[in-house]
Specification:
Elements (H helix, E strand, L loop, with lengths): L1 H12 L15 E6 L6 H15 L7 E6 H13 L5 E3 L7 H11 L3 E3 L4 H8 L10 E5 L1 E2 L10 H4 L4 E2 L2 H13 L4 E5 L7 E2 L2 E2 H9 L6 E5 L8 H9 L6 E3 L7 H7 L5 H14 L4 E8 L6 H14 L3 E6 L16 H24 L5 E9 L6 E6 L4 E5 L8 E9 L4 E4 L10
Parallel strand pairs: 1-2, 2-3, 3-4, 5-8, 8-11, 12-13, 13-14, 17-19
Antiparallel strand pairs: 6-7, 9-10, 15-16, 15-18, 16-17, 18-19
């Protein structure tokens, strides 16, 4: 979602004359868009600001604005601690950036804009076309979360669940299509909680599925509690809806899930996974895991390893628990750091083995790949992604950008697959 927000921030500020520059040391304005989910997010902000200060030590000071979730959570502290920062702008207030920039330019004052005004934000954004010109583009349809998992800062930085109108979404989707988008990824902190006047995510996907020039549809991130039967059915009937589902579970231990306030069990999760697999055998899963959550025992960790192997996730995103300020989990006693690191190492080794096993199964088979760009500095090499978001590279004399091609996968590693397109007599092999 941060990528989408960053693109829309640029759409806003270019309305008052700002343009992107690749020469960072010549910029007169820095807008640092932040995420508060990961560890040491605040420290990274100070590091980034320090780098700007160093670059402009003997030059006129640029405008420095901190946007996003860190600004929302710690805006007042940021302004007090680092006087070089001119403004903090929360994720629901960045539609005011043009106004804020004008105030800073004229008055040189510090500004704190961290109110929750998500409706006003999208009302303003709807007036400005989305200029994203990527083959695969992002589109925010939902923000906020009402689940209040004890480790998560999202309810405090993004607010309550809010769904945009279907008309607004389809209009923005059409803008992206007109800019060349072939694939749309629908975004939300809890995307499958989307519900606009009784119309759920499945209805929205069905409407986008009707757009001729859209070839692929994805959505992220889902919560198991909001995975309704109509959405399950959509995965059996809508041909443009991709068969990879990112479905975070965080832990394979019921005790830890209860401590996290996830409001579902491991059994609930497995029942959902198995139901989806049964109705559409092509579906595969990726997930998020928190390792070393407070109270995690060896048994809890082994239960998580067991779940990893049982579902056979093709991608797993795992991190050591890091307390986010203001969350209930931040007050819980952490487990030994070295133990947590060791468990993470074991988990990632197992996850990596599963991923590589899955990828080797793709060798000497065909994959349907949407090509997004030509690789810079490489002669006639094109990059794309298959239906499961696997990165694929092929050589071709023909322009593949924006096209879906059947690729024979020859080889690969955990990061990239390499293949050839037989009908074009091009191959990656030496």
């Amino acid at each position: 979602m941060n990528e989408y927000d960053s693109n829309r921030i640029y759409d806003l500020v270019k309305e008052i004359g700002y343009i992107r520059t690749e020469k960072s040391d010549e910029a007169n304005c820095y807008i640092i868009n932040t995420c508060h989910i990961r560890e040491k997010a605040t420290e990274k902000v100070y590091h980034d600001v320090g780098r700007v200060k160093k670059n402009f030590r003997n030059k006129k000071k640029p405008i420095v604005i901190i946007a996003g979730c860190v600004a929302q959570a710690e805006g007042e502290i940021l302004l007090k601690r680092e006087k070089y920062i001119d403004a903090v702008v929360g994720p629901q207030s960045y539609h005011r950036l043009s106004e804020i920039l004008k105030k800073i330019e004229s008055n040189s004052i510090s500004i704190d804009s961290t109110e929750f005004e998500v409706i006003e934000k999208f009302d303003n954004l709807n007036l400005i076309k989305n200029s994203d010109s990527n083959i695969s583009s992002f589109l925010t349809i939902q923000e906020g979360c009402d689940k209040f998992c004890k480790f998560c800062v999202v309810p405090y930085t993004r607010g309550a669940e809010f769904s945009r109108s279907i008309k607004e979404i389809l209009n923005e989707c059409q803008d992206l299509v007109n800019n060349g988008a072939k694939e749309i990824t629908l975004l939300g902190q809890n995307v499958n909680a989307f519900n606009y006047r009784g119309n759920k995510l499945s209805h929205l996907i069905s409407e986008i599925n009707k757009l001729d020039r859209i070839r692929r549809i994805r959505y992220t991130t889902s919560h198991p509690l909001d995975f309704s039967n109509d959405l399950i059915e959509a995965h059996t009937t809508l041909e443009k809806l991709m068969p990879l589902i990112h479905l975070p579970i965080q832990s394979g231990s019921n005790k830890i899930l209860k401590s996290m306030n996830r409001k579902h069990s491991v059994e609930d999760y497995l029942n959902l996974v198995n139901k989806l697999k049964r109705l559409n055998p092509a579906i595969r899963f990726s997930s998020d895991f928190i390792i070393g959550y407070p109270g995690e025992t060896d048994k809890d960790f082994n239960d998580t390893l067991k779940l990893l192997k049982e579902v056979e996730f093709i991608n797993s995103y795992s991190f050591i628990f890091s307390p986010r300020p203001g969350t209930p989990a931040s007050k819980m006693e952490k487990i030994d750091e070295n133990l947590a690191k060791e468990r993470l190492k074991i988990f990632q080794k197992s996850a990596g083995e599963l991923k590589m096993k899955y990828r080797k199964e793709l060798f000497n088979k065909k994959s349907s790949v949407l090509f997004e760009n030509k690789i810079k500095g490489k002669e006639n090499e094109f990059f794309g992604r298959d239906e499961y978001l696997n990165s694929v590279i092929v050589k071709s004399q023909s322009d593949l950008i924006g096209k879906i091609e059947e690729v024979d996968i020859l080889e690969g590693n955990q990061n990239t697959l390499y293949g050839k397109i037989e009908k074009k007599f091009n191959n990656f092999a030496a």
